[in-house]
Amino acid sequence: xxxxxxxxxxxxxxxxxxxxxxxxxxxxxxxxxxxxxxxxxxxxxxxxxxxxxxxxxxxxxxxxxxxxxxxxxxxxxxxxxxxxxxxxxxxxxxxxxxxxxxxxxxxxxxxxxxxxxxxxxxxxxxxxxxxxxxxxxxxxxxxxxxxxxxxxxxxxxxxxxxxxxxxxxxxxxxxxxxxxxxxxxxxxxxxxxxxxxxxxxxxxxxxxxxxxxxxxxxxxxxxxxxxxxxxxxxxxxxxxxxxxxxxxxxxxxxxxxxxxxxxxxxxxxxxxxxxxxxxxxxxxxxxxxxxxxxxxxxxxxxxxxxxxxxxxxxxx
Length: 316
Ligand code: SF4
Ligand SMILES: [Zn+2]
Description:
- It is a single chain.
- With 316 residues, this protein is α/β, with parallel strands linked by helices.
- The chain has one domain (2-277): TIM Barrel.
- The chain has ten helices and eight strands.
- The protein has helices at residues 2-7, 70-79, 107-113, 131-139, 157-160, 167-179, 200-213, 230-236, 245-257, 282-295; strands at 22-29, 35-42, 87-91, 119-123, 143-151, 183-190, 218-223, 264-267.
- An eight-stranded mixed beta sheet has the order 1-2-3-4-5-6-7-8.
- Helix 7 (200-213) links the parallel strand 6 and strand 7.
- Helix 7 packs across helix 9.
- The relative contact order is 0.11.
- Zinc ion is lined by residues 278, 280-281, 304, 306-307, 309.
């Protein structure tokens, strides 16, 4: 399967190992209804050793192992652009505790650079979460949160994603993180391969509910974007279809109506234009979803004379 997924990939962007790929800023809703400034640093590092069929993160990774010192140089540059030292997410398009992606010699300098932040979020596959992660959490001044892609709880789709993670792996890791006082953020796919199109909304909601029941205090719904090669091949075989912006909005409306009290649920808006079919209403609908991320409540639908958006969406 790995070979099949990789054989369909196009070429990489090949970023520099001395500069972060990007730094972005947003305001995040927190449990209890408050908001905090959050910065995300997209680090350039080694490619993830897994080959999930839906993943396109490899496009912006280095060709070999991350050179020692590269990530602390990148973070030093990123910090020049970060005014509010509240929440920071370090996303390296792989696994933060994978020694090929983040050399263990980087832990000490990164910990020093992260002093002053209330919370640091890193992403990692359960296979790489162990003593190094817990030692990092113990030495960090702020709180550590680990983001894990749960992807789906659909029992047939999850093993076919080639993630090499079972639901039991996720649950065991979630318990271990909780036992060590490390926070958990989870990603749930909308538009998950191998899940029938008319069941996408239900399985995404079940996935969010499972993540929250397992201790995730933030759950982020990721609309799957095409373009990694494998997804197009799966689409041709009838195993994947791109989601629509209507479905994204309907799913988020339904999730927020659950009034989950133990977690903040967000819709990931990165590259959202790739699920839009109407340029006339896209910006307004994206703003609506952004407002919902901040308020945690559904907002009035956008009406569009061009594509008929909002028609039939206000279902109870
Ligand atoms: S584990 Fe994460 S980064 Fe690695 S291939 Fe899967 S989705 Fe992509
Ligand atoms: Zn429209």
